[in-house]
User: Fold this.
Amino acid sequence: MDFDALFAKELDALRRDGNYRIFAELEREAGAFPRATSHDADAPDQVTVWCSNDYLGMGQHADVIAAMCDTARACGTGAGGTRNISGNTHQHALLEAELADLHRKDAALLFTSGYVSNWAALSTLGAKLPDAVILSDEKNHASMIEGIRHSKADKVIWRHNDPEDLDRKLAACPSNATKIVAFESVYSMDGDICPMDEIVEVAEKHGAMTYLDEVHAVGMYGPRGGGVSERLGLQDRITLIEGTLGKAYGVVGGYIAGSAALCDFIRSFASGFIFTTALPPAVAAAARTSIAHLKESDAERHRQRGQVAKLRARLDALGIPHLHNDSHIIPVMIKDPVKCRQIADILMNDFGIYVQPINYPTVPKGTERLRFTPGPLHSDEDIEYLVQALSTLWKRCALAHAVA
Assistant:
């Protein structure tokens, strides 16, 4: 059998539909973010990055870089094993304590990525808790969906950000069910924020566990960067908070935070934790430095919010359609996969502006978009250059000046 022919057939279908993904080959420059060197033949040598999840530029922060370099020199590079077999270091323990404090929880547990932490925690909870039923928001991330699927627990989908629908579906659960409500605070593609207080009220009414993904909120919201749950004063009412070290904190890794018994339960039963090599100690040290800094400093968040507001205002002034939300994520709607790819290519090659097209399956067909994430290191001049480029392309590509 010609396996390569089978692979090529599927890839050709992606290309025809405009959903084939092309990676920009960039080289980040410490201290120059959001500037990056491009190694793509058709793009300028220097481009401005507009779609990074390093939301606050902490991957460029001098203290974070120093912590990683100093620890690598002191401890070497890799952890040398799983946490259970030689890979458990002092840096891991310190980082978990920092994370537990961030969320005002008894304990925290590290994973190699946010994807793995969701997959491992939800699959373990669903598989090991008696008669588990996981009630999942219909727009939950792929990592949560995979974890629920892998658990083989009963699954109930509730309408996105709809506490009334959640209430009805919790009421319909069997009386013996262990109910787990899984949802996100900030949904990364539309940028909308959940009605967390109402969801928590409904879950408590039915005696359900709350599982909150704060991946796109940690570092960004709350007086110490504890996320939307901290901003709303709900941390103590959430059973499990899941987050990442790879976005606002500028490093890599994922985690959960909760009671000591909960974290020990996941530590002891989750294959995605047990059989995975631990994060390098230098990564753990850098992440702890970033978290500690953002607990004390609000300057990055304040500047970032200002730049988001400026970009939104300029898009409105020029009639460029974007989804309005209360978060830091600005989706500019294209609604056509081929045009989305074309516009992204022109922005990169002609204007030195890098933004990745977001197409199916990340978003539903017909909702293709460019997703902008202004940061504190984007200048006012960067914003004006971007909106003028978008305005030029809107006319050239005959796109609608409305959000439907």
Summary: The first helix runs from residue 3 to 16. The longest strand covers residues 178-184. The chain has 15 helices and 14 strands. The two ends are 47 Å apart (CA to CA).
